[in-house]
Fold this protein.
Amino acid sequence: MREPLSQAVDTNTVVTGLSHPWRSCIALLKVLPLCAALLFPSLYSMSATAKSEGVAAPSYSIESAAATSGLLLDVVRAGKRLISVGDHGHILYSDDEGQQWLQARVPTQQLLTAVYFVDDRYGWAVGHDALILATRDGGATWTRQYDDIEQESPLLDIWFQDRNHGYAVGAYGMLLETLDGGKEWQRIDDRLDNEDGYHLNAISAIGDAGIFIVGEMGVMFRSADWGQSWEVLAGPYQGSLFGIVAGSQPDHVLVYGLRGHIFRSADFGESWQETRVQTDSGSLQFGLASGTLLSNGDVLIVGHGGTVLRSSNAGESFSVSNRADRTSLAGVAEGTAGSLILVGQNGIYQTDANGNDLLDKQ
Amino acid sequence: MTSKARNNPAAVLERLIFNNRPAVIALCVLISIFLFWNAAQVRPETSFEKMIPLKHPYIEKMLEHRNDLANLGNSVRISVESIEGDIFNKDYMETLRQISDEAFYIPGVDRSGLRSLWSPNVRWTEVTEEGFAGGEVIPQTYDGSAESLEALRSNILKSGQVGRLVGNNFKSSIVEIPLMEEFPDPDDQSKMLKLDYQDFSHSLEDKIREKYQLQNPNVKIHIIGFAKKVGDLIDGLFGVALFFAFAIGITFVLLYWFTKCIKSTLAVLFSTLVAVGWQLGLLHLMGFGLDPYSMLVPFLVFAIGISHGVQKINGIAMASGTALDALTAARMAFRQLFVPGLVALSSDAVGFITLLLIDIGVIRELAIGASVGVAVIILTNLIFLPVLISYIGISKKAVRISRENAVKDSPLWRLISNFASPKVAPISIAIAASALLFGLWYGQNLKIGDLDQGAPELHADSRYNLDNDFVIHNYSTSSDVLVVMVKTPAEGCSSYSTLKAMDDLSWRMENTPGVQSVVSMVTVSKQVIKGMNEGNLKWETLSRNQHVLNNSIARADALYNTDCSLAPLLVFLEDHKAETLTTAVAAVEDFAAKNNTDQHQFLLAAGNAGIEAATNDVIAASETMMLIAVYSAVIIMCLITFRSVAATICVILPLVLTSVLGNALMAWMGIGVKVATLPVIALGVGIGVDYGIYIYSRLETFLRMGMPLQEAYYQTLKSTGKAVLFTGVCLAIGVATWIFSAIKFQADMGLMLTFMFLWNMFGAIWLLPALARFLIKPERLRQ
């Protein structure tokens, strides 16, 4: 019952299989309360909770004051806006550099794992139940595009080439492609040589060179033709890799994962060098979850134990700092004037360049 | 008064008693031997079940699932603080090791569950390329060197114990000792011993706190936990018992000042103590122990007994003026005072009986105990005491003083009688009316329940509560826990739908004001699933795969029962104020109403906050009912005694003013309406009405004799004012000592009762004549 609603809301599309006029009437009736909901969100949130017992009613994420301190897994920019996704279907956005966060209307309560925007309006988010959500208004409202509860596993990352063409990756080798902005998603797992079905943890474009995927047990895949054909790489590491950062130079790739492991390549993954991060008590042992390339060319990687790593030399070496609260971090975005927006276990932090809080969190 | 018919019941009783004086004495001696022997066996009792409303649905649910919740933890936490520097130094770790070892050997400790940095069950884990790696936080190779302390620091970070076993600021760590309610006798393994909370609490003090603070001046020890609290409470109870001696001492002095006769002073004290002994003996015969609330009863019985004894002595002294010998004087006084005494004592008892309406064990026992006590006073101080005095007599000096006072003019009473004057009365009424309005307005701030931080039974600045504060501030835990019981069919607690619903409830609660955090098997499940996926935060959620879920809860031992049909959801609250509890409980009930299915039901409530929510519920429901009951009772009593609505209003209105001001005082002092303060209202009104009855009955007599109001009031004060004043002071002293109790609720009770007793007395003296000025028509009484 979820599908018709989400498709009907997607007003630009012609809903497949919806030939009978009654069905469109029903679909319209279902949209009406939603329109009302957009106008009177508080009113609707009451009726939405009241309806949540019914199996048929779509369960929306609940507006919650504690959302900014709950588990959040990714944070990105869409133009001037910051958008973060996380637990209970929470999608938060801020138009003032993270001072205040608003909660978007999201038709799920599942844990969302990643979010990607191609421009300041079009974006997608993925999560558990192999869920894919889409927005066309810069993240304020979202619709469901895909889910697969039977799969019993999550999608873990998503990347779009433009408003139409994109890929989502997930657990047990799940790979999905769309050519029409998500109206239809195709399972294309077998394009990868991944017989053991290793988790695919991250996907990213490496400049103009192509796209790159990393995953469980150090698996790596690359595609120079934007996803039509994929090549499996013999990676430098047998432990899991959780993320990719494209360097500021062409063909530069940084991948990172378990126990503080970081590897860099200057040739789109042909050859790799390891970067060991040294701390006061030996080499860094915290798992690294997410990273980003800052506008000044610095690379920033965050992870467990409140770890915030920064490299000013394309990943050849990193300075390390750990947040005082040692909380696990899952995402990072660039703020203004050298500040950072971090997200993780305990929500959002506005921090200085080293990950220390700018303001006392409430 | 002396012209009463010879055949009225008091006269018959008088002949029966005074013609058989040796038999009366012998009977009293026999009863005393029997009851004192019983009294000696009364033991302090701390059954906490009696302090909670057993019939409340929350409590019924809790008791129904008590066994499933049993391993939720009766444990004591010893936090060892390093005063200078952090815990990473050799001396600190050595002291911690010794404390940990010492605690291990205290009888009653569940040794396998003991946790400290030194115990082998505290481990660090880490995800590596090969899977999980882990080890003891303090490895075998630890030698106290700088390197091993540095390794310890990193192990602690990896162990996830910061905020649990290790303080957030690394300046303290905890030794957690789970307790067994029953454990094998160390000397004879086949015998089971019951954990003695007081002994246990004392061994913590002697063997841990004192010993190690002395041994290592750089450590400070904080101990919290249910067992420690109960131990401290029992100690506090004995403290109150000591106050009894103090109350006797003061009363002795006052009695002597009042009677000017050592013989009658001793006689009154003696017969009153006999009453207390009988009351305690009967208590034991009825199968009750002495709990922290019924502890008040001996004090009340003592105070009421003394005040009635004084009335007797006063009467006998006055009668001695005309009587030939002590026996005749005693007989005259008996005949004159038996009926008013009986009425006053009955009104006390009626006040107490209304307390039976409240469905909380301790309050009911208090009601029964106090009623029995009052009945006993009728025997000892209305019957036994006059017989005793008839043998020993009253000193000539006392008789002379009483006779002189009867004719002498008293400037004090003359002055006070102005309260009845036409000029002062309207002012008094105006003041009283504004005080009433103010009291009603300010009394709106009155809250239900306990309002202070920490253990509400103990003072905010008691050592236990200071220790509790320390732990709350330095660790990520709270001491106020509301437990929601999630009930499913057997083996059903790990299904996705149930866990998902629990997760939804957890999040709903975490968004509820006043909720600090929520812990349940879902918390563990998510952490384990994340752990199984290499610690990746993107997996920190419930899986739809049943095998994964079953696997994930394997380590959540205490968070579901053996057949997986009940799982507690622990909601940690910021405090236990009534609003916090109401909000939290309402959120759970709302959620339960919408989400309960055949597969899972969300049931309230266990945990200290759950019990308190239920108690508050009962208190709030009982408060109005009890006020109506106690006031109806005293109004009927007055109507029967005086057969006049006007007179009843004169007696009752001052009581109403006291009750209203009492509420305002509680609001101002930050004392909530709770198990301890609810009985105060009934006790205060029940005993407070005595003053009005004494004063009004005398006043009426003088008015009937044709005196104008103010003169009649002057005569009233002269004959009974001193006794009323003395009664008020006596009662107040009996309970005022409680203000110094180490136990908070006893102190609150003492404070409120002292206020009620004194202010009721003041109200009767000040307001009753002013009301009479407007309501009573002396001409009509004279007809």
About this structure: Chain A is about 10% helix and 35% strand. Residues 63-351 of chain A form a domain with the Methylamine Dehydrogenase; Chain H fold (CATH 2.130.10.10). The CA atoms of residues 241 and 257 of chain A lie 4 Å apart. Residues 21-39 of chain A form the longest helix (19 residues).
